[in-house]
Each structure stands twice: as structure tokens, then as C-alpha cells.
Recover the amino acids of this structure.
């Protein structure tokens, strides 16, 4: 790197009749040139404080501003406080007499990067102090940005955790398990959404859905649809009436007309032996009954995804569950992962998923362990992380 590429500009703010800084530049031992500008007061300094200034050298003996709330009367660091507010991104050096060592130390505590004594000032010491102050300010700003980023990430994480559903199944004998993995890097929430509630008549309602896309807007829309579904379900809506209302919510809240959402809803009768199934462009749930291999529930009567057809209708199909069963609902992120050798375009698909779940059930896996194994195996078959959001919901009876 050439010397010119590392040149620094120093703005000196002092009211010195003797003219301590009479030279336009200094040259340090490393060949770095320090260009010097001088200002006699804070008003003049503000005019000279352009983007190419790297460091400010402030004489603490400079008179304090006469107004502007820069400190109480008699505050010897009022000028420094004013400069720190005026130039928050610049490195600042405090200049004072050796007899004011305590004041110099206080200046650093207030926000200056370092201090210099006027009686010991020379070109080499000044150049070294400028470079140190500039690098320290740069490090301080980087640390501050990192701290802000961590706080923002923690706040986002708390917000996203709060937006994930808490199942409301009090009074039900069904066991609930779920698994959620967003495709978005470092996110906790994706465009997939699910929920489970029990209404006052004893019916257990479950849903799972997927907003097309993977960004924060899709995640927010998924949360809106989930909350709307819960409210509408408690209000007594079901089947086509519920899905038609959810489509109206989506149409009003989506960013563009190209956005749609798939949805699967199941309402399980209080005795647990029957259920109503509605599909809106979503893959059909998988059911495993005692003593029988897992299979997909019928899906021939499914309707279109929400947001595709303005006056769409969705049929509710009655299905028999039996006495003892496990019902798994999932989003397409689980079945769209690739299988086979590297570079293969073959997908796991619903048939592959059914075979995979049957193997895991035969190995004795149930509940959370079953869902975790399903996601892990799908990821392994894919040869790496699944790129789409993945949500799974499992209800067990008996």
C-alpha cells in the first residue's frame, strides 16, 4: 500500500495565539503523511469537519459553547462533550497541560480516544497518537455494531419464539408433538405454520400450512393466517366457510397477487374415531393405525391453494380414524428433498416419505423422536440441509 493511500487528516481545534500548528502536514516514521487543518473555535470547526477528516485534536482549554445545553456552567469538558456530539464517528484526542492530568484522564472517560500533553507534543508522538486513536475508534465502532447486531438478533429470536403456536388441548386425551425447521438462514420462523386447539364441544382442530416463499414477509403472513385460523375456529367456522374466510385474509394481507398458501385442516370428533379433512393444495396427512402400515389419508377431493381462485370452494371429507392411531401432518419441505447419488433430481416424494415413516415406526420411534428422525433422514438423503421450510405436527390416540 502506498503512503498516499494511508494519509490521515487531522482537525486541530485550539485558540492558541502562539500558533502551535503552523505546518500544513507531518510525516511519521512509517511515511504516513498527516494533513493538518486548524480551527480557532467550535463554529469554525463544524465548517471544516468534512468526511475526509480522520481525527480531531481538541484543546480542552477552549472556551465552552455559550448555548446548546453542552453542560453546566463551569464544566471544563463542555467543549469536548460538544465535539463528541458533533462528530460521533470521528476519533478525538484531548490536548491539555501536563498539570491537568486528572482532566485528561476524565476526558478519556467521557469519550476521547486518548490525550496528549501540550508541553511534550512533537510530530512523532502526535502521528503515533493519531493512528492509535483512529484504529481505536474503528474498533469501538465495530464492537458497538456487533453488540447492536446481537441485541437485534436476540430481540428477533424472542419475537419469533413468541409467534410460534402453543397448542390448546386441555381436556383432550390426544398427545401432541411438533417439529419446525425454517429454511431461512439464522431464522426461527419461516413461511410454514401450524396450530392445534380444542373447542368447547370437545372437537380437536389441527391445521398446517405453507405460504409460498421463504422470506420474512412470508413468515409474517403465515403467522397472520395461523392466528386468523385459531380465532375463526373458536368462533365455530369449519370446512369451506373457514377456508373461504382465510382466503379473504390472505388476499388482503399479501404483498402481491402471486402469493398463495396451501393448507390442510383436520377436525377430530370428541370420541377420537372420526375426523373431517379439508385440503387446499396441500399434501394429505399420513395415518398409522395399530397393527397396520402407515398410509396417506384420501386426497382426491382436495381444492386449490388459498389465493389462486377468487371464488374457490373446498369440500370437507369424513374419514374413519379408528380406536388407536397416529396422524402426521407435514409441509412439502419434508418431501421435496432429493434422494439418490449426488446430482440426482429424484425427490423423496410422498411415497418415499411413507416408506421412511414405516421404517421408523417399525424401529419403535414415536412422538418427538419420530418427527426428529424423519427430518434428520430426509436431510441425510438430501445430502445436506433442506432448503425449504419444514413443519411437522403429530397427534396420537391410544
Amino acid at each position: 500500500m502506498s503512503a498516499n493511500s494511508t494519509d490521515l487528516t487531522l482537525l486541530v481545534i485550539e485558540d492558541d495565539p502562539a500558533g502551535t500548528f503552523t505546518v500544513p502536514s507531518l510525516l511519521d516514521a512509517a511515511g504516513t503523511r498527516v494533513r493538518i487543518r486548524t480551527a480557532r473555535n467550535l463554529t469554525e470547526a463544524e465548517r471544516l469537519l468534512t468526511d475526509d477528516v480522520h481525527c480531531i485534536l481538541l484543546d480542552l482549554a477552549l472556551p465552552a459553547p455559550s448555548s446548546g445545553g453542552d453542560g453546566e456552567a463551569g464544566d471544563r469538558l463542555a467543549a469536548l462533550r460538544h465535539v463528541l456530539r458533533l462528530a460521533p464517528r470521528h476519533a478525538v484526542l484531548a490536548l491539555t497541560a501536563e498539570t491537568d492530568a486528572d482532566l485528561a484522564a476524565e476526558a478519556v472517560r467521557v469519550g476521547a480516544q486518548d490525550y496528549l500533553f501540550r508541553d511534550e507534543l512533537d510530530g512523532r508522538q502526535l502521528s503515533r497518537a493519531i493512528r492509535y486513536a483512529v484504529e481505536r475508534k474503528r474498533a469501538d465502532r465495530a464492537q458497538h455494531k456487533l453488540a447492536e447486531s446481537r441485541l437485534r438478533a436476540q430481540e428477533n429470536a424472542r419475537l419469533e419464539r413468541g409467534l410460534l403456536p402453543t397448542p390448546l388441548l386441555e381436556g383432550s386425551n390426544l398427545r401432541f408433538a411438533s417439529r419446525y425447521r425454517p429454511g431461512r438462514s439464522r431464522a426461527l420462523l419461516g413461511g410454514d405454520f401450524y396450530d392445534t386447539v380444542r373447542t368447547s364441544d370437545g372437537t380437536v382442530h389441527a391445521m398446517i400450512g405453507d405460504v409460498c416463499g421463504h422470506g420474512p414477509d412470508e413468515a409474517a403472513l403465515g403467522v397472520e393466517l395461523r392466528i386468523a385460523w385459531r380465532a375463526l375456529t373458536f368462533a365455530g367456522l369449519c370446512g369451506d366457510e373457514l377456508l373461504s374466510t382465510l382466503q379473504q385474509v390472505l388476499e388482503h394481507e399479501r404483498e402481491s397477487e402471486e402469493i398463495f398458501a396451501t393448507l390442510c385442516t383436520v377436525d377430530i370428533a370428541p370420541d377420537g374415531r372420526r375426523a373431517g379433512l379439508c385440503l387446499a393444495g396441500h399434501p394429505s396427512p399420513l395415518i398409522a393405525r395399530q397393527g397396520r402400515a402407515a398410509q396417506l389419508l384420501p386426497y382426491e377431493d382436495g381444492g386449490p391453494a388459498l389465493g389462486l381462485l377468487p371464488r374457490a370452494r373446498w369440500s370437507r371429507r369424513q374419514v374413519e380414524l379408528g380406536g388407536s392411531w397416529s396422524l402426521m401432518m407435514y409441509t412439502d419441505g419434508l418431501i421435496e428433498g432429493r434422494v439418490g447419488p449426488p446430482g440426482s433430481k429424484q425427490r423423496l416424494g410422498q411415497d418415499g416419505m411413507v416408506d421412511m415413516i414405516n421404517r421408523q415406526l417399525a424401529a419403535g420411534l414415536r412422538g418427538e423422536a419420530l418427527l426428529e428422525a424423519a427430518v434428520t433422514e430426509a436431510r441425510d438423503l438430501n445430502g445436506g440441509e433442506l432448503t425449504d421450510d419444514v413443519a411437522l405436527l403429530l397427534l396420537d390416540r391410544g
